[in-house]
Design brief:
This is PaaX domain-containing protein, C- domain protein. This protein is α+β, with helices and mostly antiparallel strands. The chain has nine helices and seven strands.
């Protein structure tokens, strides 16, 4: 199988490496010297990491105190969102689906974009323009911005065919298997870190279908386990590099 490239596994910048390390650290803070050593482990020059850290502090992404960098409130919230995306908690499937219909025409572009983003976070997929659906196994969706929205519970005649129409399940599974191959393969540290970051994004796009609707050998659970194992590995690397004051 070909290694993922381009869109599947875009290269990580020094900023993305720093965020990945801090998002995986417990607690989520690391000394500048530790980040420099970790940067070298992933093939980045320590000077490149220092520049990235300075820019991230200036942009409000990190807090810096006595040479220790910590995630800002914004990224701490992202950490919680990421956890929820990686480990959803589906309920029993009763055959009922959720359907959201946008009824208002001529909505501002920013409102349409916000609605779409919220629906995608809720793992809805568009059936057609303005109509979004998903199986009802994830409970009530989070509040969705937009006044002109109607919500329905429906029971499709052929739920398996509908799932195949809403999501390209073969493509999702193929990409997941490619990421699994890299995470378990002999590639270098930066390639595996890049695959782990891609796995987070890919798991956020998992439709989390009920078991009854999953294709055979659906790789979502394996990808979650592999990502969790890699994150433990990354945390161990970060802990080895950490100075005592960042471990409290």
């Amino acid at each position: 199988m070909a290694r993922p490239q381009g869109e599947t596994m875009p290269p990580l910048s020094a900023r993305s490496v720093a965020l990945s390390l801090l998002l995986g650290a417990t607690p989520p803070r690391l000394a500048a010297a530790d980040l420099g050593r970790l940067a070298a482990h992933f093939g980045l020059a320590p000077a490149t990491m220092r520049v990235a850290l300075s820019r991230m502090v200036a942009a409000g992404e990190l807090d810096a105190n006595d040479g220790v960098y910590a995630l800002s409130a914004r990224h701490l919230a992202r950490r919680e969102t990421t956890e929820a995306g990686i480990h959803p908690e589906p309920a029993a499937y009763t055959g009922t689906w959720r359907m959201i219909v946008a009824t208002g025409g001529g909505r501002p572009a920013d409102e349409r974009q916000a609605t779409r983003a919220a629906l995608e976070r809720g793992r809805f997929a568009p059936l057609r323009e303005g109509v979004w659906m998903r199986p009802g196994n994830l409970g009530e969706p989070a509040p969705i911005p937009g006044d002109a929205l109607l919500a329905f519970s429906v029971v499709p005649d052929d739920d398996q065919a509908l799932a195949g129409r809403l999501w390209d399940l073969d493509a999702w599974a193929e990409k997941a298997r490619t990421l699994l191959e890299v995470l378990h393969g002999p590639e270098g540290p930066m390639t595996r870190l890049t695959a782990a970051a891609a796995a987070v994004r890919h798991l956020a796009a998992d439709p989390v279908l009920p078991a009854e609707l999953e294709p055979a050998d659906w790789p979502a659970a394996r990808l979650r386990r592999s990502y969790a194992a890699y994150r433990d590995e990354l945390a161990a690397i970060a802990a080895t590099a950490s100075t005592p004051e960042t471990k409290d």
